[in-house]
Specification:
Strand content: 25-35%
Structural class: alpha+beta
Length: about 725
Amino acid sequence: MTPHAYLCLVLHNHQPIGNFDGVFEQAYQDSYLPFLEVFEPFEALRISLHTSGPLMMWLADRHPEYVDRLRMLVEAGRVEIIGGPQYEPILAMLPRRDRIGQIQAYSNWLHRTLGVRPRGMWTPERVWESSLTSDVVDAGIEYTVLDDFHFRAAGLRDPQLTGYYLTEDDGRVLRVFPGSEHLRYTIPFQSVDATIDHCRDLAHRSPGVVLTFGDDGEKFGTWPDTKVHVYEKGWLRSLFQSLTANADWLKTVTLEDAITHTAPVGKVYLPDCSYREMTEWSLPVEAQETFDDVSHAMEDHPQWSDLKNFVRGGYWRNFKTKYDETNEMYARMMDVSRQLAEIEATGIGASEISQIRDDLYRGQCNCPYWHGAFGGIYLPHLRNAIFQHLIAADNELERLSGVNEHSVQATASDYDFDGYQEVRLSNNRLCAWFAPGRGGRMYELDVREIQHNLLATLQRRPESYHRKVLAGPNTGGDEVASIHDRVVFKQEDLDQRLQYDRFARKSLMDHFYDNDATLENVARGEATERGDFVELAFQTKLRRGADRVQVQMRRDGNAWGIPISLTKAVTMHAGSDRLTVAYLLENVPQNQPLHFGIELNFAGLPSGADDRYFSDVNGHRLGQLGEELDLENALGLSLSDRWLGIDVSLEINRPSGIWAFPIQTVSQSESGFELVHQSVCVQPHWIVTGDENGRWSVEFELAACCEQKSETVHEQEVIRL
């Protein structure tokens, strides 16, 4: 048989919910538009294209001419539109109702906009579980693309990693294409000949073979150094010219063409998996380092090529244990989804809940729920966007439930699925969430008016790539390199900025320090903890009145081995934007001064701008947010963000020392390693001694007042300093 092959080129273009408009525009100019312009003249070529919902909606609004050109290519049969869940969630983290709903919502949108109803879909981040099969089919999808890595994990060998396979769940049958990891690394990072030669070799081995490339469209122009390589130096045009010149034996086809004209290779059941790199990123840091070291050490072993197919890292869902902050977003999303399902079951009209559902779906966008070679959870603006939409949905659900300015509620449940009861206090202005089982901390504080969670913070923690930071930069040589190979520093001295926190960066975290503890060692996370109140469980009572609710938490613990009882009570009034917080320490010695501090953290208040600043109780400015403060005998502190339109104030009933400092992380993104401002930590602290009854107390009010936003737009300082 004459050697011949079919090549499915599948592009996945995506920008997440909450990304800056300028980033969308830059990616459009660098990747999406030039790719289309290079592709259009090659009339014999066909591709499959997935554009995520957030990006496609932005394109329809900002660049309708691009959508018009795309529609013409669709009508000409040159581009197949691939669907998927509307706002690019990881399907494995969604309830079944939302999996099906997201896929159907985007299919309907594409049908209205482009006149086509997609038969295939892109599986976000190729995170796959067998139980997804029935939901995907029930949503109207016939086929999808995963990685050949999934198939290797099921025991298939290289000669079998072509064409497409059938898989099944609960009697539903889905077709699945194995995307080639080899092609992911040759396109566009190696010569065009490397791709053509690979296809020719497989065509000789298996005439009529179907090969699939499926990967990010941003690697054609947006990823570092690729714009020059792909367009200015002509790599993409050369690829299309070579495909055209070799069309007698190598034909580009869409996924739909392949399904229509070729038979399935066989049937397979795939394990829970993702692409290779994602499985490694999901591992705990120590396990990730061990996996990396052992894998490299085994590369020269004669049996490694056979063994490595059965070796993979972790499981995507464990990002919810690797990062508590991921679980917080996930749990908040699940609570909104549950409320929506309950209110929908009452028979309420679809028009009344359509916006709630849209906000819920937007709050499921996957990008800030994990972290690997991309910024992910380390990007504050992406986390903030998730909470913005979830809080907006919650606001409307509260309204439909009859909550108004006279309402105030206190509820308890295992909201975050950790086996402990959490407490929720809410009125029409604020919603505060507490974890008595984890030090009585406040882990979420929503300002309803501006849909902002002041505790969407991030703990400074070790990452496996910090070893690369300590080793220094390496761009991968003169040739264009994959983002997985580049080590680029976006600021100097990042190795000096690696700092780690023992505890989460939340609020009402109760510390006992050495009496000579300083701002510097507290800020660096190096101060010794002398008490056992930060993480351990508190006993809890809820008190409800006509116009107020209170959570009271008490722990009989110790500091320096001295038995001490700590009680803290948080009170919320109906219609108020303030929380009243009272602390009582008992059994405090009169003859041994103790250093006690209460940690508060505030997220979404970035540094580096004059309209984001500290001020004292008299309104005198004390510097930009992000600067360090070491105040003595202070009665309070305010943090203002004129762009966000909020003043967060702390008013204390006794003179206090106050430390304030930024929380900054060294994290990895596709463009390099960077310093990211995460939040501002504020710690009032005192040297305490007991009164004649061994008691010491303090009370403060925490207010979140919303005012007029400024017109200044700040984008980049949110990401990097």
